[in-house]
Amino acid sequence: METINEIKRPSKEEQKLALSSYSSSLVTALSRLKAGMAEMEIEETGEKIKVPTRALALLGKILKAMSQGKPMSIVPMATEVTTQRAAEILGCSRPHLVKLLEEGKIEYTKVGKHRRIRFEDVMNYRQKVKEEQKQHLIEIMNADEESGLYDT
To answer: What's the pTM?
Structure first.
């Protein structure tokens, strides 16, 4: 599995192929599926496989992101990361991350002397911080506008 440092943006060719697959075929097929699984045939081998519709929906999200040139990574939600890896994901120092853990801002477990953090909790905290930053920017813009510092 690719790690966060190894994720690469899709090439232009991959973007075009993903857009074609997503927009023309997969969206239509997903809208018609009613069962919990679908049977697919691989054209080159003639092999038929059964795929859960939830997996096809995930494939749709992957193709949509690829078509937009966004890098993708799939990580099982129950994956635990080290404090160093969590700090790298959040873009902060390891001591700062440990402080966040000790303050209870991110849940963690201890394995011996080592702290382990669920990947899902790291990503939720990152999203929360981004939303708070966005809200602060909006508040600053509104304050500047009210005081006449912001020209509309």
So the answer is: 0.56
